[in-house]
Design brief:
CATH superfamily of the largest domain: Aminohydrolase, N-terminal nucleophile (Ntn) domain
Oligomer: single chain
Helix content: 25-40%
Distance between the termini: 12 Å
CATH topology of the largest domain: Glutamine Phosphoribosylpyrophosphate, subunit 1, domain 1
Bound molecules: 6-O-phosphono-alpha-D-glucopyranose
Largest sheet: 8 strands, antiparallel
CATH class of the largest domain: Alpha Beta
Length: 606
């Protein structure tokens, strides 16, 4: 997703910006650019479509090693196609202002028409170019009053950082509904849309709030204004390691992160579960369990939404609390009355997904209780939550989410157990499940050891273009997640269905070229899933069975086996299997598995 960055300090700005752009490469982008105020008084701007290395080569070619102030941007196209023209920073018509922007200016057509009427036309098709030109028409030498006027004219979401050719000793900008922080290091000050990108570089940071306008002149000289009033925002300590970009023994981050899942499980348990006493010791979960809850509503996007669907199963079965799961993009515009006795659970790996964040603001504004299940500490959703739990999966670099999902479903399972224990769940059942959960790291490790067997099947089916993923009950969201992983990285078409729903229309697609992956754990629905397999076979469709070690393989063309476990824990092994299946097929196809086309790691626009 788009990222913005500014640096003002003692180091060469282009080095700092390129270093940052590289760190955020994993987030997904299609082009990148930077503007640096050179010692000569000019501003050098370099933009490239494609990878950061191409931008670096272009920067090296012009010898851009001077200049201590600059801005940079990675772009993920929203308005306007992928081109250097549309890439940031944008330069105002008079050449004075350079702007890097995240978000979407929603009244761009109206603003663009007004600028045209003044004889100012835009070369490209982005909202940011319109914004840059608008700023140039209204700006004075005082950036605070100029930004106040400017932000009163633009509508939408934005994090903005400007560089002014005539005052190259300062950076200034504004924030509304898009993340932006100021980071402080000994040698300078940074503006960044990703707080984590500053870890290991800065020792302190300030999180800007919606409506903030800022001017930065040095690490100790900066001004923040909100609603016309100067604000002092607390500097917070920035601990944490520099984002790990080491692959170690792995060829790709996706594979590395798939293999980190046993550790994620340990992390989620740490300090929260006492296995000796069969107790969930988390104060957050204890407090949640004591609440009088009429219903739970889970709101999330993408892989986090699928985790929510697994969570619904856990919560309803273990605690008896009815649970809805709504895709963030739909919740905001659906008819939902907010109730004070409901708990609204927001699941997000990044904690910055705009669709989810906006729902959270809406729920809170109407008096709802917001509980965050978030991976990134200090992210916007984490900060806004009334209470919440971190999923402790660590930095996830692969765009296709893997280990974050495991952290999410385990957190939701703990939540369901805590709620159930305080309600009607028999203690023996609660203690038994906790006992089995303790084996999860080992169970997942045993699943990982089957990677080669999964690769063999993935290779066999790599040339097929269409896939069904089928499952029922707890396995349906797993089928959805399996299909999503395959789509994201192989670009093959994959659809998930309830095994029994297929016959109501979509069965028409089945033929010898349309393989089906059916998730069929041992349990009450096992025989019914076998009937679905027969229906597909009768139409010549190949079927890959995802079955346990003890299940009969005779019915299937191929099988992918997982180690036996209790039904509630099947998602933890199936997801690893499905991730490996998508990974291996992608590698066979030669796609960039860590940076799939068109996708972004964290979608910070609605
Ligand atoms: C993007 C990513 C997905 C992710 C979704 C939700 O679309 O590409 O992998 O599942 O956002 O992200 P979140 O950070 O809110 O979990």
């Amino acid at each position: 997703m788009c990222g913005i960055y500014g640096y003002l300090g003692e180091y060469p700005a282009s080095d700092e910006i390129l270093r940052w752009l590289r760190r955020l490469e994993y987030r997904g982008y299609d082009s990148a650019g930077l503007s640096v105020a050179r010692d000569s008084g000019d501003i050098a701007t370099v933009k490239r479509v494609g990878r950061i290395q191409e931008l670096k080569n272009a920067v090296d070619a012009i010898g851009l090693s001077d200049g201590r102030v600059g801005i940079g941007h990675t772009r993920w196209a929203t308005h306007g196609g992928v081109s250097e023209q549309n890439c940031h920073p944008h330069i105002s018509y008079d050449g004075r202002y350079h702007l890097a922007h995240n978000g979407i200016i929603e009244n761009m057509s109206e603003l663009s028409a007004k600028l045209s009427a003044q004889g100012i036309s835009c070369q490209g098709s982005t909202d940011t170019e319109v914004a840059t030109n608008l700023y140039a028409t209204i700006a004075s030498d005082d950036p605070i009053s100029s930004l106040r006027l400017f932000t009163s004219k633009i509508e939408g979401a934005y994090a903005l950082v400007f560089l002014d050719r005539d005052h190259p000793d300062r950076l200034f900008g504004a924030k509304k509904w898009s993340p932006l922080v100021l980071g402080f290091a000994e040698h300078g000050v940074y503006c960044s849309s990703d707080r984590r990108s500053l870890e290991g570089i800065c020792d302190e940071y300030v999180s800007l709030e919606d409506g903030d306008i800022f001017v930065v002149r040095s690490r100790d000289d900066y001004t923040i204004v909100n609603g016309g009033v100067q604000i002092v925002r607390d500097r917070e300590e920035l601990s944490g390691e520099e984002i790990a970009t080491e692959l170690g023994e792995f060829s790709h981050f996706m594979m590395k992160e798939i293999h980190e899942q046993p550790q994620v499980v340990e992390n989620v348990f740490a300090g929260r579960v006492n296995f000796e006493t069969a107790e969930i010791a988390s104060p957050t979960l204890k407090a949640l369990a004591k609440r009088d809850i009429s219903r739970i509503v889970i709101i999330a996007s993408g892989t986090s939404y699928h985790a929510g669907l697994v969570g619904k199963h856990y919560i309803e079965h273990l605690s008896g609390i009815e649970t809805d799961v709504v895709v963030s993009a739909e919740f905001k515009y659906s008819w939902h009355r907010i109730h004070a006795d409901r708990v609204y659970v927001f699941i997000s790996q990044s904690g910055e997904t705009a669709d989810t964040l906006e729902c959270m603001k809406l729920v809170k504004a109407k008096g709802g209780y917001a509980f965050g299940v978030v991976n990134v500490p200090g992210s916007s959703i984490a900060r806004l939550s009334d209470a919440g739990l971190y999923t402790h999966a660590g930095v996830e670099i692969g765009v296709a989410s893997t280990k974050a999902f495991t952290g999410q479903i385990l957190t939701l399972l703990l939540m369901a157990l805590a709620l159930g224990n305080a309600r009607t769940l028999p203690h023996a059942e609660y203690a038994y499940l906790l006992f089995e959960m303790r084996k999860l790291p080992d169970l997942i490790a045993r699943m990982l050891a089957r990677s080669d067997a999964i690769r063999t099947v993935a290779e066999k089916y790599a040339s097929y273009q269409n896939f069904f993923f089928l499952g029922r009950a707890l396995e349906l969201p797993m089928a959805q997640e399996g299909a999503l992983k395959l789509k994201e990285t192989t670009y093959h078409h994959a659809e998930a269905y309830s095994s029994w729903e297929l016959k109501h229309g979509s069965l028409a697609l089945i033929d010898a070229n349309f393989p089906t992956i059916i998730l069929n754990a041992d349990g009450p629905l096992h025989a019914k899933n076998q009937s679905s397999t027969q229906e597909i076979h009768a139409r010549s469709g190949p079927v890959i069975g995802v079955i346990s070690d003890r299940a009969d393989a005779a019915l299937y063309d191929d099988v992918l086996r997982f180690p036996e476990t209790v039904y509630e824990l099947v998602p933890f092994v199936q997801v690893v299997l499905l991730q490996l299946f998508a990974y291996h097929m992608t590698v066979v196809l030669g796609n960039d598995v860590d940076k799939p086309r068109n996708l972004a790691k964290s979608v910070t626009v609605e």
